[in-house]
Specification:
The protein has 299 residues and is an alpha/beta fold. It has helices at residues 2-27, 69-77, 101-117, 146-163, 178-191, 208-217, 232-239, 248-254, 268-295; strands at 82-87, 120-122, 129-130, 143-144, 167-172, 198-201, 258-259, 262-263. The chain has 2 domains: 23-52, no CATH class; 62-295, Creatininase (Rossmann fold, 3-Layer(aba) Sandwich), CATH 3.40.50. The chain has 9 helices and 8 strands. Strands 2-1-5-6 form a 4-stranded parallel beta sheet, sandwiched between helices.
């Protein structure tokens, strides 16, 4: 009797193992989203969308993350072979601007730059900058180790190259962003030599001295520093997206609507000034990128 029971147990285990091995083959993808999961509504082989004819018009956006795979494919085939890798940074920006201010500024500028270029798409924002993760700064600051940051830039660029992009540009809105971008660009260009693909950091984007000069001479804004890591032009730029980015409703309530002696309320003037500053920086960056494209060699 005991021997008979053991044989039944062994036979049952063998049947279970066979069934377990066969399950992934039924749907081609195993458990999870395929037919190997009996509770999944997605059964059968997946459609090869990368080789299908696009069934709808392309959505009007420059952001890769907001496009479908077939939209990205067709945009690259149509000549949008320039990709922007953009970096912000999280740090103390005073009591009125969020710690992610640089990322907000970078996204606003990247939209304008890509549209002015006409042949560019923008990779998802990297909003953490190099620093000391174990000691990033004031509350809310998040930093990446130098190795992690370089690896992130490299992997972004390698992925975009594999997608079919030919010109990959690094833009950073935060001081520590810049040197590693230059370093990674040099390494990638050496590795990619002869492939027809180039990488470059665009220093003309990060030219706040020119912004300050424009603010003074053209906008007639004269700031008197109050000691915060905050300023009129940064507030004006982020306000073009949403006045909440500069905490305007809360500042009105607290009667704290100025920065460095310059009023942000009523909001019409700073928003108008912000748009002019965005255009200034976009124009300078586009001109620099176009020059790089004309002068590219050895790729």
């Amino acid at each position: 009797m005991r021997q008979t029971m053991m044989l039944l147990v062994v036979a049952g285990l063998a049947s279970f193992c066979v069934l377990g091995q066969q399950a992934p083959e039924q749907g081609g993808r195993g458990r999870g989203r395929g037919a190997g999961n009996p509770e999944s509504p997605l059964r059968g082989p997946r459609v090869d969308v990368l080789h299908m004819v696009r069934p709808i018009d392309i959505h009007d956006t420059v952001w890769i993350e907001d496009l479908t795979s077939v939209e990205v494919r067709d945009l690259i085939h149509s000549g949008k072979t320039t990709a922007l890798i953009i970096v912000g940074g999280m740090e103390d920006n005073g009591p009125y601007l969020p710690v992610g201010k640089h990322g907000t500024v970078m996204k606003i500028e990247a939209e304008a730059i890509a549209r002015k270029l006409g042949n560019a798409l923008v990779a998802p924002l990297i909003n953490t900058a190099p620093g000391r993760p174990e000691r990033p700064g004031l509350p809310g600051a998040i930093a990446l180790s130098a190795e992690t940051y370089r690896g992130l830039l490299t992997d972004y660029a390698e992925s975009l190259k594999a997608d079919g992009f030919k010109n990959i540009f690094f833009l950073g809105d935060h001081g520590p962003d810049q040197p590693p971008q230059i370093e990674v660009s040099k390494v990638l260009n050496e590795k990619w030599k002869g492939t027809g693909v180039m990488a470059a950091q665009v220093p003309e984007y990060y030219d706040y001295a020119d912004v300050q000069k424009f603010e003074t001479t053209v906008l007639d804004i004269h700031e008197k520093p109050e000691g915060f890591h905050d300023d009129y032009y940064s507030s004006a730029i982020v306000m073009t997206q949403d006045v909440d980015n500069a905490r305007i409703p809360e500042r009105i309530k607290a009667n704290k609507t100025s920065i460095n002696g310059v009023e942000l309320y009523p909001t019409s003037k700073p928003i108008a000034d912000g748009r002019k500053i965005v255009a200034l920086r976009a124009d300078a960056t586009v001109a620099a990128i176009q020059k790089l494209l004309v002068n590219r060699t050895g790729q």
